[in-house]
Amino acid sequence: MSDPAVVRVIRAIGLIPRNIIVAVLHVYRAVISPLYGDVCRYYPSCSAYGLRSVQEHGVLKGSWLTARRLVRCHPWAVGGVDDPPERHHSPYRRTRFGFIVLDRKA
Prior knowledge:
It is found in: Cell membrane. The chain has 106 residues and is mainly alpha-helical. Helix content is 56%, strand content 9%.
């Protein structure tokens, strides 16, 4: 059997790539996205969709969901509300800055 403390540390280390992507998306949304203005046909915007997808689902699945969304976002798209799928039972929680940490109970 694994020691719960060791498993918790490994899971926390596994969150580092996710939080790096979250930081990059925050910088993009603060610096680059305002230069384009309000051009996205969907709500939330593609960058907000990508941020929430990575926060909820991790780097691999979140990137896949974001790529699928970017392919759908083109000048002929109808647009509308398109939220990323939610994950109902997550062992993580979001900080007020949007970073992902282990929930205290997990």
